[in-house]
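#structure-requests
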Amino acid sequence: MTPVRHTVVIGTYNRPDALRRCLVSLVAARQPDASWEILVMDNGDEAFSRRNAAVVRGLQDTRVRHVRMSSVGLMAARHEGAEAARGELVSFVDEDVLVEASWFEGVRDAMLDDAVELVTGPILPLYEAPPPPWLESLWVGSEAGRHTGYLAMLDLGAEPRRIVPTLVFGANYSFRRATFFRVGGSHPDAFPRHRELYQGNGETALSIRIGAASGHAVYEPRCGVRHIVPPSRLTVTYLEEKARGFGVEASYTELRRDHGLGPQDGVAPLCDLVDARSRGGARKRRDTAPRGSAGEPDDASRGVAGAPRDRAVPAGLMSLTHALHDARREGFAAHRAAALAEPALMEWILRPDYLGANGELPPPGGESPQPSLDSSAGGA
């Protein structure tokens, strides 16, 4: 049997149609003479899991495997996928991305440099409805290009370049398997709503750990993906949910820092309410934000054609900025209050890593209700 060199890990949860499109793009992009495998890590509901398994069977390729999980959360899917991977190179991609034809080749060529530990490429939007004009305000620009944490997008141009490790987003995240376990893996990520305050800083922690160990991160344009953006993500409601999650992440990070944990533990060396990859344009100067005429809502409040009806976008982009800032503060406050009230949550936050048994969530129960962003502890 030809040894597997490159393993792609896809965590999936109840989205068989998106998964099918992602897998088709990956299988079409692979090189016939290259050794590869794809692991679909499925911790969704049983009915959706059966559909996901049927999607994998329909590809009729034994190199694509469906793995039914009993644990929950994106971190568990990624950790168990990395554990099961047979490749020396591992890539995390989201179920809602389509990879470019040169993706496999780009990852492998970038990793020929032994100093490179992380590889990503363009993560460009594929909108399923016309994006509203105010969406541009969520991008953060620099000389190198631009990015937005709100939609996990990255565009640094057409030339390869070294980048800071925290710009490698989980939608398009390639690394060396040995390094993953050597530095201590990833941190808690997306969870179901009733455990959402157990979220942490996800793959950002892995990037920080790799950077602390002097690993280089590279942006390789051939490793591009298209990130599908459905109409439901072009709403203020969705953005506020993301902002609350960024607040949870900030509280989690600060609590770990307050207890003496640092970059080698996946904690960024500088404190901020949201990290550089998550700001999403929330701190643009006032004079850069276009507005509608006085007393009249601008295009931001008119919604998106084909999008589900959302509550009205605040008139003016600065109002949107304030709404997202408030949502981040709510997430931060809810997480901080719950962590101080729930010993099991604080113990989870302060674990040195989440590999193996350390990644098992504390069981629900106890005298207090399970914390969530909807609780009275400061949630939305």
